[in-house]
Design goal:
The complex is a heterotetramer, with 2 copies of chain A (310 residues) and 2 copies of chain B (252 residues). Chain A is of the alpha/beta class. Chain A has one domain: TIM Barrel. Helix content of chain A is 29%, strand content 20%. Chain A has 8 helices and 16 strands. In chain A, strands 3-16-15-10-9-8-7-4 form an 8-stranded parallel β-sheet. In chain A, strands 5-6-14-11 form a 4-stranded antiparallel β-sheet, with no helix packed on it. In chain A, strands 1-2 form a two-stranded antiparallel sheet. In chain A, strand 15, helix 6 and strand 16 form a beta-alpha-beta unit. Chain A is globular, with a radius of gyration of 18 Å. Chain B has 252 residues and is an alpha/beta fold. Chain B has 2 domains: 94 residues, Elongation Factor Tu (Ef-tu), domain 3 (Beta Barrel); 102 residues, Nucleotide-binding domain of ferredoxin-NADP reductase (FNR) module (Rossmann fold). A 7-stranded antiparallel β-sheet of chain B has the order 4-3-7-1-2-6-5. In chain B, strands 11-10-9-8-12-13-16 form a 7-stranded mixed β-sheet, sandwiched between helices. In chain B, strands 14-15 form a two-stranded antiparallel sheet. In chain B, helix 5 links the parallel strand 12 and strand 13. The longest helix of chain B is centred in the middle third of the chain and has 12 residues. The chains are: A alpha/beta (310), B alpha/beta (252). Chains A and C meet through strand 11, strand 13, strand 14, helix 5 and helix 6 of A and strand 11, strand 13, strand 14, helix 5 and helix 6 of C. Bound molecules: flavin-adenine dinucleotide (FAD) (2 copies), flavin mononucleotide (FMN) (2 copies) and FE2/S2 (inorganic) cluster (2 copies). The site of one FE2/S2 (inorganic) cluster has 12 residues of chain D, from loops. One FE2/S2 (inorganic) cluster binds next to loops of chain B. Chains A, C: Its EC number is 1.3.-.-.
Chain lengths: 310, 252, 310, 252
């Protein structure tokens, strides 16, 4: 079965890619398999300046999920371009570069540098960071702020732009429409949900940062719902993510409306998960009676001539 | 470093809530070194979600087995303790960098300083040191007499000094109170952070510290497990840059 | 240890109670134990008129959670007062009556009837329903609408009012403050998170209703975070819930700021969970070094003279 | 109805993906009746979250055991199939109302109509009917020859008619195609909804239908498992009002 998918800036031979922050810059997992097997690679968030990130503990386990508060640790955009992205140029897969910041200028500068480096296929704007200029409101929770940021980044970048939506909002569709109107070429969803854990033996918050982002299978039903809602209201493609573990999860995300599916937390449990899913996908699709992978995308709401199975 | 479905040879309770786990995994046994660790999927059906890092306490390359010693402290270790003989255990490893011993000269004297479940990796280290003709003394600290394990095993390779916090066995107090560095070229320490901090700051010589930190991936990709360092990078990843660090590099 | 807690309208001998909708009107679980063991009982949502609820399937299992779309099935307020609440009058525990509706008038009428029946200790306003008059926006996602509804219900009821907050919002603190300002006597949080599941073998949504509410351990980190944030900003008590399974979960909710803790989904796994937790709580608190249960509430943010443990 | 930690006596594969599970639970065996079901915590450590409803297929009150037959169709049943002998299995039950048989006169003839994993509860029913001197015929439908189970066991109590969808065993087609109600006073049917719908609408006599629905609590508290009825209430809870209903009451 043909599993290729054409997304803005990214010609993928499989719709499966790793999610940002769970895969470093790829070098660690290249010890396990050839990265060229992937549909694309999403790298860890890059910021204008080097960041040391939060204190430890940075993660906590929850039921079928985990909280993380890494704090955007990264060596800064210049170093990333020179070393990390440079290393990836020896691979033949699209590179999606996740961008973060606390002020619009950070995002703009980082995006401009990455785009003009020629070493990225597309940008993924991580708008879940607090906007220091707007009193800490997340870029990702106000449609107007997200619109402005998307516009500003589009203006300095000539490569496609994916905006990564935060699920911590009342109306995800409004967010999606705002960034689409501002020129986003695609959406990534969902980022983590804000959560917290308390150690009852000490009464203290487990994460040094207090709050963290919930990821993993626990959040999958929320991700599926949000993608389902958004996919029907926008015409740009969606990279879906949130708790993917099995090939049926990949298909569920596609049926909800995702054109590609990213795997985050599951890499920690099984470092071979990406190649395993990539191999299993065409087999499982055939088993389910599909002849064409494209038919799966949006299947849950797209009207379909005949039932898939009886 | 690879994924292995090892088979559980046995699990035995060796002290209060401390289990000895022996698994059969010949490739892993061949590849592993003292001080490295295993990232273990403790349960079945992917539960709990995250793997648990556990040090390698012993290796039998002839038998193709590895031994770990772990304490039940929470969900993951409780689940592990419930796993049965012959069941398969999914292991990612060996991970991290072991204790450097090549620079130590034959005939010199080193000390091992371990606290609680920080002791296990020192056991295989002791074996290897002795095999290389290096003399070693072990300083082992526990909370109480019922927590003591592997004291006899260590005695086969080195002279053993035990401290318990409540004095119910060996010296009363912390292990750092009884350590002597006279004639010693270096030390290898593993244990809780307060112990390592004391070791680093109180001892007049440099040595190696094996750190613990909460881990996600175990391979250097998620940045969960960092510790601050004096190096240019300013931080290191315990899983892939460590868990063993020269004592002068880490900030404690 | 003294585990009594005084909440508006409810003198509870233990802070543990069942959550609405997971416990019917109590009669089923009274086959397993004496309901008088409970701190209180929360009954299934009551509406002005009888409702048949949604089609089946009404539930789906997710990783460490479940989705439900029962659809407010209930025999209507008059029947509930005459039969269900009447039956509960033979017990010696506070009765918290959960109220739902699709128009403000529904809520007001139902609340008035329940309050004047004399058979309820307090009302719990379930504001997660879509407001038909405001084009389907949930009462629980707009602070102004929630304010108005709370005011309207307070005006017709002389028993204390708890407002049950929905987690599907950008700013839960704003919601909490709005209903507090409108006169709410307490908060219940959190209700379920909107989620969805797709059956990949058919491409269809699993729940007949499409979307459903996610409950269970999966959502606990989100509940803890929201309660932690809200507890520091309001001065009315919080009944916490969302994924409680163990006695440490109960304590975690209290440390986050909850004064009482409700158990929902866990009843399905273990029908004895409530009495088990009630028995375990004082034992575990003592083990953790507490002499007074009150000290636990808000422990994670309340400044405490000395560390709990070393 | 109570919570029991039963012990697994054995699990055997009796047809393609169909397991026979025998548990020891004397109190449960004493209390249970044909047509009731068990709500089983299939895994350990509370995973998966929800219990799974499985019918009681057989009861040995002397031995104090119950037998279930279940097909692996998803996560919960897969987990259950992995549970080992002697492990303890947490069961809530017996739940629901069984098949009413007291109204049937000695010597009369009834039929049992079962489809796939709807067949199990009919087995103990057949035993009980025969013991009461009631004659019964069983019409059992399966997808294919390799799915057939308990045909021999039923033959000890009644005459058995088998249909398979692909004709690989017995009659080709649906079991509802071969049912004969001549001289029959009532029927007891359990199987997939399409089968029950045909049974209700095609057969000239009234009988009893045992329904399946997704369940949360299993005891009537959550309202997950309703089915529409012709009664004044307009709906019934499959778990506590059923699973067995008079065919005329339920709307299919
Ligand atoms: C390199 C390394 C080697 C180790 N070797 C051993 C050993 O040989 N024997 C032994 O008994 N223990 C060892 N530990 C500690 C062991 O990993 C923890 O005790 C274990 O992860 C606790 O898991 P849990 O689910 O039982 O506890 P929980 O408290 O329920 O775990 C919750 C989360 O916190 C993490 N966590 C909790 N405590 C620790 C800790 N001390 N270090 C790292 N993560 C932690 C868990 O992995 C899990 O992700 C080692 C840790 C590291 C980092
Ligand atoms: C009263 C009753 C008696 C039953 N008796 C038997 C029996 O004797 N043998 C047997 O093989 N099966 C029986 N079933 C069906 C059995 O409950 C399901 O096959 C089983 O729950 C599937 O679980 P799963 O996790 O493997 O499947 P999944 O599809 O992964 O389950 C997902 C969710 O859907 C529910 N579900 C899926 N299919 C069904 C179904 N057909 N009925 C109810 N819930 C379902 C599950 O319980 C679970 O909550 C009975 C069902 C009921 C209601
Ligand atoms: C440890 C960790 C670090 C993450 N870092 C980032 C990041 O830097 N940028 C980003 O956009 N998302 C980040 N995420 C979110 C993931 O990319 C993904 O959106 C989320 O985890 C949901 O997918 P999952 O459930 O498969 O992990 C991170 C997630 C984890 C677990
Ligand atoms: C089957 C089911 C039915 C519910 N019905 C109601 C309801 O009628 N009214 C309400 O306010 N909450 C209802 N809830 C939400 C619960 O009261 C609770 O807020 C939520 O499930 C989180 O707690 P839990 O994780 O312990 O279940 C329902 C939950 C479930 C699972
Ligand atoms: S555990 Fe992921 S970087 Fe160390
Ligand atoms: S399963 Fe809860 S009412 Fe039937």
């Amino acid at each position: 079965m043909n599993t290729t998918i054409e997304l803005p800036g990214m010609s993928m031979k499989t719709p499966i890619l790793p999610a940002s922050g769970c895969y470093g810059f790829g070098q660690e997992y290249s010890q396990f398999y050839d990265l060229d097997l992937l549909g694309a690679i999403t790298v860890k968030a890059v910021t204008a300046e080097k960041r040391l990130g939060n204190q430890v503990p940075r993660i906590a386990e929850t039921e079928s999920g985990m909280l993380n508060a890494i704090g955007l640790q990264n060596p800064g955009v210049d170093h990333v371009i020179e070393h990390e992205l440079e290393a990836l140029t020896s691979n033949n897969i699209p590179v999606l570069v996740n961008i973060a910041g606390n002020a619009p200028e950070d995002y703009v500068e980082t995006s401009r540098k990455i785009a003009s480096s020629g070493k990225a296929s597309a940008l993924e704007l991580n708008i879940s960071c607090p906007n220091v200029k707007s009193g800490g409101i997340q870029f990702g929770s106000d449609p107007d702020i997200a619109y402005d940021l998307t516009k500003a980044v589009k203006a300095v970048s000539d490569i496609p732009l994916y905006v990564k939506l935060s699920p911590n909002v009342t109306d995800i569709v409004a967010m999606a429409k705002a960034v689409e109107a501002a020129g986003a070429d695609g959406l990534s969803m969902i980022n983590t949900m804000v959560g917290m854990q308390i150690d009852v033996t000490t009464g203290q918050l487990v994460l040094a940062n207090g709050k963290g982002g919930l990821s993993g299978p626990a959040i999958k039903p929320v991700a599926i719902r949000m993608i389902y809602d958004v996919a029907q209201e926008v015409s740009i493609p969606i990279i879906g993510m949130g708790g993917v573990q099995t090939v049926d999860d990949v298909i569920e995300f596609m049926m909800a409306g995702a054109s590609a599916v990213a795997v985050g937390t599951a890499n920690f449990q099984n470092p071979m998960i990406c190649p395993e899913l990539i191999q299993a996908l065409p087999v499982r699709l055939k088993e389910l009676g599909f002849e064409n992978m494209q038919d799966v995308i949006g299947r849950s709401f797209a009207s379909c001539g005949q039932p898939l199975s009886l | 470093m690879k994924l292995t479905d090892a088979s559980i040879v046995h699990q035995t309770l060796v002290a209060q809530e401390v289990y000895e786990l022996k698994v059969s995994a010949p490739d892993l046994a061949d590849a592993a070194e003292a001080g490295q660790f295993l990232h273990i999927q403790t349960g079945q059906f992917g539960q709990p979600l995250l793997r648990r890092p556990i040090s390698i306490a012993d290796i039998d390359r002839v038998e193709g087995t590895l031994t770990c010693l772990y304490k039940v402290v929470g969900k993951g270790t409780a689940v592990l303790a419930g796993r049965q003989e012959n069941e398969s255990l999914n292991i990612l490893g060996p991970l991290g960098n072991g204790f450097p011993i090549n620079q130590i000269e034959r005939g010199s004297h080193v000390i091992l300083i371990g606290g609680g479940v920080g002791i296990p990796p020192l056991y295989f280290l002791a074996k290897e040191l002795v095999e290389k003709g290096i003399q070693c003394s072990a300083y082992l600290g526990f909370r109480s007499a019922e927590d003591v394990f592997y004291d006899k095993e260590f005695e086969e390779f080195c002279d053993v000094h035990i401290a318990t916090e409540d004095g119910s066995y060996g010296h009363k107090g912390y292990v750092t109170d009884i350590v002597s560095t006279e004639g010693v070229v270096t030390y290898y320490a593993c244990g809780p952070k307060p112990m390592l901090t004391k070791v680093k700051h109180q001892l007049p010589i440099q040595g190696f510290l094996s750190l613990e930190e909460r881990m996600g991936c175990g391979v250097g990709a998620c940045l969960a497990c960092v510790c601050p360092t004096n190096t240019e990078q300013q931080y290191a990843k315990v899983c892939s840059d460590g868990p063993v660090f020269p004592s002068k590099e880490v900030i404690l």
